[in-house]
Automatic annotation (TrEMBL):
Residues 275-358 form the DHHA1 domain. Residues 340-372 are annotated as: Disordered. It comes from Halonotius roseus. The chain crosses the membrane at residues 23-43. Signal peptide: none annotated. Keywords: Membrane, Transmembrane, Transmembrane helix. It comes from the Archaea. Pfam families: DHH (PF01368), DHHA1 (PF02272). This is Bifunctional oligoribonuclease/PAP phosphatase NrnA. PANTHER family: BIFUNCTIONAL OLIGORIBONUCLEASE AND PAP PHOSPHATASE NRNA (PTHR47618:SF1). Residues 62-191 form the DDH domain. InterPro entries: DDH_dom (IPR001667), DHH_sf (IPR038763), DHHA1_dom (IPR003156), Oligoribo/pAp-PDE_c-di-AMP_PDE (IPR051319).
Amino acid sequence: MEQFVAVDGALSAAATAVESRPLLVAIALVAAAGLAVAAYRWLRTTPGERFTELVADREAAVVLMHPNPDPDAMAAAMGVAALGKQVDTEMTIQYPGQIRHQENRAFRTVLELDIEAVDHVTELAAEDVILVDHNEPRGFDGCDGILPTAVVDHHPGDGSGEQFTDVRTDYGACASIIAEYFRDIGAVPVPADEHASETNATRVVPSFTATGLLYGILADTQHLTVGASAADFDAAAYLQPGVDEDKLDRIANPEVDAEVLEIKARAIAGRQTQGSFAVSDVGTVTNADAIPQAADELIRLEGITAVVVIGEREGTIHLSGRSRDDRVHMGRALEAATADAETASAGGHARMGGGQIAPRTEVTDGGETDREPAMSRDALVEEIFACLSGDV
């Protein structure tokens, strides 16, 4: 009975409020209806449409890649830049570090990618920054102070964009997400032997862009065989009509540096094995990009299900791991193996991981900088085997 009285009292109070303040009630109802309509429209808007609107609202923006960008990062960046060009936004692609791997250099050259290196935050070409293929800025002075406008990525992490965040860790490549954006806005891939005007489409995927995006997908999923989701296959199929097969072949089969072949041989000959796990220390290298290539070779050996290759360049230890063993999450294994080194940075996916251990630096009484290893390579090998075996 008391509940009925309370409800009746509440209804009476509401009726009194409506009678005494009809204008305020009407305004509240209109506002609520407006919010409902906005929410409905937002839910029906695809991520690609929302991202395109965000880019179109800017006069200029920077598409920022991670340090030493790979084909997936470069593909995603060129895709965002191509999209921005179609909505009259001035786009600049920038990156920290270097582009050393022969495949990466071929990607840049063959697809005529216009990109700029950056060493300091003051060198960024615009205030609005869009991160692709990573979700936290890193690799150059002042990067910690950047608040990205948007983040598009497929790696796990805590980074986010101020106005747009799209992180899909179930996707094998960031290029697949960008391809999906083009599909969301009805863009038509332009065949290599046609001009964009021949498609009669408002939005297009230029052949250079389609070729780059497909190669980015293939590179990050080992030709759609490792870590690829249904979305990656769908993206590849969508892009195919615009792919230039000649350019794709030139990127995939560049000339190989002699040191890369030598390091692959050293990795195979010097490998240590425990069961189906292999770890190889290739020693000092001048080309750190040869280390992941050596890991790609080792994982193909019969009887090997997980492998890590380590090497040292200018005092920094580089690690690259591959796994086709359901017991081994390579990213977590490398993170755990380097946890005791305060200068380490490592991680990755279940099938692929990498990391670096920078040397400790101390200033001596004489003012000289002393660089010491943060972790010995022998101790690192032992830790890696322990972590691969689940002893973490």
